[in-house]
Amino acid sequence: MTRAFRYSAASPAVLRQNAKHGFAARHALCHYGSDTVYSFIPKNGCSTMRLSLAVANGCIADEQDWLWIHANNETFRASLRELARARFTFVILRCPFSRLASAFLDKIVSRKPDFWELHRAEGERFDPASLSFRGFVKLLQKPGHLRRNLHWAPQSDFLVYKDYDFWGALESFDAAKQKIEMETGMTILDARPWTAHGTSGGEVVEAQNFADMTLHRLEGLKIDGRLPPHAQLYDAQLRESVARLYADDLKLYIERLGRERLTFPDIEIP
Is 268 inside any structural domain? Predict the structure, then answer.
């Protein structure tokens, strides 16, 4: 089977100098036992998948060695030959609204290095404690910020192929897990209890809108183990703004997986 690359023809330059292809290829990992290539997208269950690959490829024994994966993001990177000859290929997509909310609650509210990188890029012109989700989205609308960080860069940037044998949805991960295990023989190990990167484990707070709540207040909720549902970070204006920012991702998600799993299934795409 011929594997068609998504970005290889986007530039007439030597392939190794094609930045878009190179970026996607760096995020394409091998499971050697089944000749499988997996395109990993941050915030889309990638810690679980990279942990599972590390065990399946014999580099670590089990989940207790989970820290290994963070120093080895490119250890299983596929060569051009492996990309072209893969027996099975798959990727996990996520609703763009949910993914951005998760990145915000994880990386921005907790003021991880990703946050401070953005703060420096803005010339430290905003008050860290008073930033809100609305303010974060406005920052992403500025030139250079949307792709500044892997955790909120568009998902389509990570796709090395035009098509995959399996397009999974993070929102239906149990079904995706069964398909991947059946095709590859891997055992999918849940990394969330170890990494604490997810935003789905806290107590859901009472219904209200959190679009303008400051990081200071959101951080207090998070410390107490309480998190706003992703949908409640959005109002109508933010839904439209994020739909414009991630229009390509929304179109891709709907084309491959349908609308029903989206946070806002009726959203109009610009």
Answer: no
Residue 269 DSSP symbol: P
Nearest by Cα to 130 from 215, 220, 253: 215
pTM of the entire predicted model? 0.93
> Three-state SS for 17?
helix
What pLDDT digit, counting tens, does each position of 145-172 carry? 999 999 999 999 999 999 999 999 999 9
Query: How many CB atoms neighbour CB 115 within 10 A?
Result: 20
In a domain? residue 75: yes
Contacts with 20 (C-beta within 8 Å, 6 or more apart), sequence order: 7, 10, 11, 157
The boundaries of the domain holding residue 27 are: 8-257
**Are the beta carbons of 188 and 52 closer than 8 angstroms?**
yes
> Is residue 262 assigned to a domain?
no
Q: Provide the b/e sequence for 219-245 (b: ≥16 CB within 10 Å).
A: bebbeeeebbbbebbbeeebbebbbeb
**Cα separation of 142 and 95, whole Å?**
22
